[in-house]
Each structure stands twice: as structure tokens, then as C-alpha cells.
ADP-ribose pyrophosphatase NudF
Amino acid sequence: MIVREETMSSEIVYNGKIVNLRIDTVELPKQRYSKREIVEHPGGVGIIALTEENEVIMVRQFRKPIEDCVLEIPAGKLDNGEDPKKCAIRELKEETGYEAENMEFLLDFYSSPGFTDEKIHIYFATGLKNGKAQPDENEYIEIEKYKIEDLVQMIKDNEIHDAKSIISILYVDKLL
Amino acid sequence: MIVREETMSSEIVYNGKIVNLRIDTVELPKQRYSKREIVEHPGGVGIIALTEENEVIMVRQFRKPIEDCVLEIPAGKLDNGEDPKKCAIRELKEETGYEAENMEFLLDFYSSPGFTDEKIHIYFATGLKNGKAQPDENEYIEIEKYKIEDLVQMIKDNEIHDAKSIISILYVDKLL
């Protein structure tokens, strides 16, 4: 049986710059109640960009939550109400300098629907022209390029640890 | 250039049942400082379980953060310090009733390394024996079975919206 959980009360316990933390009290069957901890997130985009040499543009950056550098596809969060495709064009340019002639929507998904509403929209960028990257003032990023078959092998070897990147690489390699 | 961000100060602003919200002040080059909002999460497991009829066991449940029912592989969060493989065996049994003769580690990844340390460990379960599900008191779950090629088609059609499920289905279909 699937039960929709009606909200009895809702409280924002922290209002952040990027995320909010909200606690909902929900009603369950038999007049029982439970709390749900919900991280509100504006959502984001990821871009899998393929050069004419059939290489994927990846970025490596330090991620504070895991205290390590992570290899990922270019990505970024949606500005308030921003169209995801516009965001994808903007983030690819800012992070890597590349402009894409074609920016095709592939799929969207929730990164972890048990505790956050973050939705990530994935775009496939081709027809790339290289320009100058314009990272945010607080963004320190290195660009690396990989053949897609090497990235697939890295996934098999458990060397890529970012969910949106794994999804995008397997999707483009296996489903396009 | 990749910059490791040293923690200057750190404050837990909310201590939850499942997640904590922590604000770190970090040092950047040129003696600049920034805040990082970090959702601490115990991590979890996902199980892609294949029956002898070559069907994948999926669960459908209401997810409060997105106010909708979501089709996912069986999954659950790690109890304090729990071994991920033991967690996978326990969660598969609790959510679906199935016990697996073989529980093979496939890969692990961060669900969204920009704001949370949540790490998900994926296991591949085969040699299944059906028993009785023992969901948590507050868990309402429906079990559905799908041929893996149908799940792959559903991913192409953008009908599966859970990151760990997309990764696990594409991994098993394309890489095993």
C-alpha cells in the first residue's frame, strides 16, 4: 500500500544561501504522525560535452562536504527560476570556456529523493567552440578531457564517484 | 588550479534524526573566506536484485521531499557504523522479503557532492529466495518487478527519476 503523507505542520529550521532545512510533521495511517527532514535545494544542471575529437570535458574541483577533489561533468545550480537549458549553456561557458552549438536535453532525476528535492537536468552538448572560462570568484576548477570509453572503464573500476557524472557517461555511451 | 579549502570554523546549525546541517567557514586564496553549507548524512545502500526470471525487483513509495511516489531499487540508510553489505542484506529483506544467496558490491558514489557527504553503496543481489517483507512501521512500499530491458527503455523515456536506480540499472545492463 502506498500512502501519501499529508503535511500537518511545516517549519523552516534553517534558511541558507543554497539550501534550506525544513521539518514537516506528516500524518500516517491509524492517526500516527512522523517527522520528515527535508533539504530544499533549487536544483541544478549537468552537461556532458563532447568535443570533435570525441572527448568528454570533465572538471576536477575540491568538494568541501567530502574533503576531497572530485572528477565531475561541468554542472551548476539553477538561479532562482532559471530555465535549465539556459543554465546549462551558462555553466558550460563559465566553468570550461566552451560554447555549444547544440545543447540537447537527455533526462532529469532526483539526486536523493529520501531527504532532498534536488532535481538535476542533464544536457548533451556538441558542436563545441573553445573560449575563455569565467569561473565564479570562489570557484577553482581544473579541466580534463577523456575519451568516453576510458570514462566507462573508470566507472567499472569504481574511479568516478559523482552520481550525475556516472549517469551522463553511461547514458551517452550506451543509450544514444 | 585546485584549492583545498581549510576549515576556519564549523558550526552544526541543526542536529536531525537523519541529517545534520553544518556551516563551515573556509579559507580561499588571497585571504578570502567563504561559507559552505553541508548536509551530513550517514550514507546508504541500494540493491539491484535480479530474480531467476531475469526480473529486477523495484519498490514504489511516497517521497515527502518531492511530494510524489517514486519507483526505485530497494535502498536504505546505514545504521551508525553499519557495514554496507550487511545493510544491503537487511534492507532487501525488510523492504521486499527477498533473501539473496549472492550480494556483490558494484560501486559507490556521492549523490550530490556539492552540498552533502551522502555516499551510496550499490550491491547486486542474485540467488533470491522470497520470504515475507518486514517494512519499518512507518514505511509503506509496493513491490513491482520489471525486465531489465524495460527499465533501460524507461530510462531512455525519462520515466525513472531516482539517481541510484538509473546508475544501478545501466551498470548491470551495460557493464556486467
